[in-house]
Design goal:
By secondary structure, the protein is mainly beta. It folds into five domains: 85 residues, Immunoglobulins (Immunoglobulin-like); 92 residues, Immunoglobulin-like (Sandwich), CATH 2.60.40.10; 84 residues, Immunoglobulin-like; 82 residues, Sandwich (Immunoglobulin-like), CATH 2.60.40.10; 114 residues, Immunoglobulins (Immunoglobulin-like, Sandwich), CATH 2.60.40.10. Helices cover 1% and strands 50% of the residues. Strands 46-45-49-50-43-51-54 form a seven-stranded mixed β-sheet, with no helix packed on it. A hairpin with a 2-residue loop joins strand 22 and strand 23. The longest helix has 4 residues. It is elongated. 16% of the residues are buried.
Length: 578
């Protein structure tokens, strides 16, 4: 390929295109296509015998199987076949001393990912397997995707997710990761926000045995002297175990009753003694150990053994009476109340009271767990400009569910700018006027369940609102300036698609919200298309530098509105010279 040729310099002023311009129909300023589509450009020149050249990012294009160059009389055509994301850049057509340029932007295709390849399973290791795979070679690089590894026991129809990763292409599965002993199969797929790829099943089967785990731990207990002490532990697999009291192994019989039923082990210490106070009770099995502390209080007579004693039942300080659904019972020395169908309203402090003593019971009746309804992906990831409102919402399973909102792990309270709403099952957070500090990770939490949101505040270019065309003379100082929506915004400057850096002749300045590119002493080589670009916006400057033929008439500017793909861009209007 040849380097892009500069327009010849004859030390005279470069004339702007007029009615005698050699290029009759120019390229559009910007062309946007999806990955995998064809990008076509065409121009029309004044004469059909002119020498013409096509360039991309300053390099001359030659015809290949993916680059088609055709000429039909005065019409010249360039087609990029099956474009990819890296084909984005600046396309330039040159005819004689005239040229026209267009910016090609290739967008990611909205399609599910391609399934991974080359799956392998290494089972030459004890009670584990190493699974490896390779990403599809033509997978999209513009859309975030993750690998999902699933397992199922041979004979079962249900697949269970066991591993996810964005970048890892291998995973080691051990026996401790499966719920029960058995033969297991594995498969892998890829997921992005547009869907899921097909599944690729690994060719072998591996036998895995889970290690023992404690499903229900020992609990510290407190009892009165003379009462029985009950302790129990549940394991993930049946196995033998031993009980110890202060390092002394216990045997079944006498004061100690030891039972073992499959995965459950229990110990009863009959008639606890004062000497048992603060004793450590330990259970040990193969690979499992757990302990609890026993506290023994002196015996206290709470109630007189007379069956005719009068007692009262109170809830939260108010006396209870027998009603439908609430029974008050008395049998010998025993007194009790029975709530036939408990709900959350029955939570509270219950008191059994005699003339000389009382005992309290704390009752907490929990409602069903709160679940979140699925929310569209685009509602979970919000992008907004400064000063615009941002609304985050979700639906819970109950109208009376309590939720708490967090930002980056810190609780959120209502302010003049933030409103928290609850309407039926909808829970909503409204930021009335977004600021830079509002960007971050938001969480709506209800009990043990939560929903995550992300908010991004874009940096926008406030001025100029339109693209700018500028003419100037050698060696004038040139200033290209943008005003951003916030002072901390970052920009990059480009000239003809190449990033611009500071030199002895070029300064890149940042003052508050203003970003400026200054050419201290301009030359014809400084002519071209300049772009100031943020993470959410851009503006174009078309700069034409010529030799001064007579008395300077100042700098002329043009505002260009362009139209492309149905969206109104900009329309050309010239200002009179100064």
């Amino acid at each position: 390929m040849h380097k892009f040729p500069e327009v010849e310099q004859n030390r005279g002023r470069l004339k702007r295109p007029t009615s005698s311009c050699t290029i009759v129909r120019k390229l559009p300023r910007k062309l946007e296509v999806l990955e995998g589509e064809n990008a076509a450009f065409y121009v029309e020149v004044e004469n059909d015998d002119m020498e013409v050249h096509w360039f991309k990012d300053g390099l001359q294009l030659l015809e290949t199987h993916q680059t088609i160059l055709k000429s039909f009389g005065k019409t010249h055509i360039l087609v990029f076949v099956n474009v990819a994301y890296h084909d984005s850049g600046v396309v330039t057509f040159v005819a004689g001393r005239s040229k026209t340029s267009s910016r090609l932007k290739v967008k990611g295709k909205h399609c599910p990912p391609i399934c991974p390849l080359g799956v392998k399973m290494d089972v030459d290791r004890p009670n584990s397997a190493l699974l490896t795979w390779v990403p599809a070679p033509n997978s999209q690089t513009t859309t975030r995707s993750i690998f999902v590894l699933e397992r199922k026991e041979v004979g079962s129809q249900e697949w269970q997710k066991c591993f996810t990763s964005e970048t890892a292409t291998s995973a080691e599965v051990t026996g401790d990761s499966v719920p029960c002993e058995g033969n297991y199969r594995f498969r892998v797929s890829s997921i992005n926000k547009y869907g899921r790829s097909g599944h690729v099943e690994f060719p072998k089967v591996v036998h895995l045995v889970p290690g023992p785990k404690i499903l229900c731990r020992l609990q510290d207990c407190e009892t009165f002297e003379g009462e029985d002490v009950h302790l129990s532990i549940e394991l993930s697999a049946p196995m033998l175990g031993n009980w110890f009291l202060n390092s002394l192994q216990l045997q079944h019989g006498g004061r100690y009753s030891i039972q073992h039923n499959k995965t459950k082990h229990s110990l009863v210490i009959h008639e606890a003694q004062k000497a048992d106070d603060t004793a450590e009770i330990t259970f040990i099995a193969n690979g499992v150990r757990d302990s609890a502390v026993l506290k023994v209080k002196p015996a206290v007579v709470k109630f007189t053994p007379l069956s005719e004693s009068d007692i009262s039942w109170l809830k939260d300080g108010k006396e209870l009476q027998a009603t439908e659904g609430l029974n008050i019972q008395s049998e010998g020395n025993m007194r009790r109340i029975v709530i036939l169908s408990a709900d959350e309203s029955h939570s509270g402090v219950y008191t059994c009271e005699t003339s000389e003593d009382s005992i309290k019971f704390n009752v907490d009746v929990a409602g069903p767990p709160v679940e979140f309804s699925p929310v569209p992906e685009e509602e979970l990831h919000k992008s907004s400009m400064e000063l615009d409102p941002v609304v985050l919402f979700c639906h819970v399973s109950r109208d009376d569910a309590e939720v708490v909102w967090y930002k980056d792990g810190c609780g959120i309270q209502p302010t003049d700018n933030i409103t928290l709403q609850a309407e039926g099952t909808m829970r909503r957070l409204i930021i009335r006027s977004a600021e830079t500090a509002d960007a971050g990770s938001y969480t709506c939490q209800a009990g043990n369940n939560s929903m995550e949101f992300t908010v991004n505040i874009k940096v926008m270019i406030v001025e100029p609102k339109n693209d700018v065309v500028m003419e100037s003379f050698i060696p004038d100082e040139i200033n290209l300036q943008c005003e951003l929506s916030r002072s901390s915004g970052k920009v990059q400057w480009f000239k003809n698609g190449q990033q611009v850096y500071e030199t002895d002749n070029i300064q890149l300045l940042s003052e508050g919200p203003y970003r400026k590119l200054t050419i201290l002493s301009s030359s014809e080589e400084d002519s071209g298309e300049y772009v100031c670009e943020t993470n959410g916006d851009s503006v174009f400057f078309q700069l034409i530098i010529t030799e001064q033929m007579g008395k300077p008439s100042g700098i002329r500017m043009a505002i260009v509105l362009r139209e492309m793909k149905g969206s109104v861009r900009r329309k050309k209007v010239l200002f009179a010279p100064w």
